[in-house]
Each structure stands twice: as structure tokens, then as C-alpha cells.
Amino acid sequence: MKILGLTGSIGMGKSTVAGMFEEAGVPVFDADAAVHALQGPGGALVERIEAEFPGTTGAAGVDRGQLGQRVLGDKAALARLEAIVHPAVAEMRKAFLEQHKDAPLIVFDIPLLFEKGGAGGLDAVAVVSAPAEVQRARVLARPGMTPEKFAYILGLQMPDAEKRQRADHVIDTGVSHEETRVQVRQLIACLLDRKER
Length: 197
Known about the structure:
The structure is a single chain. By secondary structure, this protein is an alpha/beta fold. The chain is 51% helix and 14% strand. The chain contains nine helices and seven strands. The strands form two sheets. Strands 2-5-1-6-7 form a five-stranded parallel β-sheet, with helices on both faces. A two-stranded antiparallel sheet has the order 3-4. A hairpin with a 2-residue loop joins β3 and β4 (61-62). α2 packs across α5. The mean pLDDT is 92.
């Protein structure tokens, strides 16, 4: 089995690319989705997060807006939250690996792969990237997003140019979906050492 780490900064189209891997039959472990499940209604981490950050949960699980306000800009609070979340996500990833142990290729979709040192145990890393103006337009079109919030998030992420440099593969999403899909199919073929049909 080969394990590909998939990463990319906010607004680069990583979720779209992860979907293209799934369409091609490659199992994808989505770290963000795992976090949502752990923090959603009845999620395994809701009680622990409420104990650490009182008033941030309710019937719908963790109120991500409330929790975000508590930890954004507070490195110590963010570290406390990560100490709760990261081990639980690692357990889910282990279970996913076991479930798909016969797959020739799997993808770990990890937003902060380089920032949080998540490249261990991966055979290769692919970065999803688009021109800065495309990224900005995509992000600012999101509900509730402001230029200030976007700038803050970018400040937490490694610059795109550095990610591209550190990656084994770059998937360009500043082109049409079909052109991106072709890149994904070519990468799968390359990783599995077979000719693209």
C-alpha cells in the first residue's frame, strides 16, 4: 500500500481534489471530517472540550464559532485543544488504515500537514495549489469570511510557495476541473507505477 498525503492552503481546492481521488476509487481519510464527527452531536470529544472550554458546546455538539473565538490568537488555548483532538484523529486514522489495508493506494487529506509535522509515514505528499488571486477570490466568496480573517488564517499556514517546494507533487487547481482531474489520474498512475489509460 502507498500512502499519499494531500494538503494545501485555504481556498486552494483540496476538498475538490480529494473528491476526485475518491471518484477514481482511492480511499480518502479526511482529517477535517474526522474532527467534525468527533465534535458533532454525540461526538466523542464534546464532553472533554466542554470541560476544557466551558460554554462552547450544546445540543449540536461543539459550537465551532464559540470555540474558535476562544482559541484563535491564544497559542496556549490552541495547544490545549490540539492535545484533545489530535490523538483522537490519529486513532480514527489507524482504524481507517486497518479498514482499507488491501487498497493499493490511500490518501490522507491533512490541511496542516507541513505546519503540524504530519508527513511521517507517508510515501509522498501532493500539494493542491492555485494562483494567489484565485485563492483569494474563492475564500472571500465564503459566507462570513472577511479579508482580515483570511489574512489571519494565511498567517497560520505555511506560504504556498514553500509548500510547493516541499511537496513531491503539485496539483494545479487554477485550471478547469477536467484538467485537474487529468492531473489526479496521472498522479494515481504514477504512484501505482502503471500507464494511464
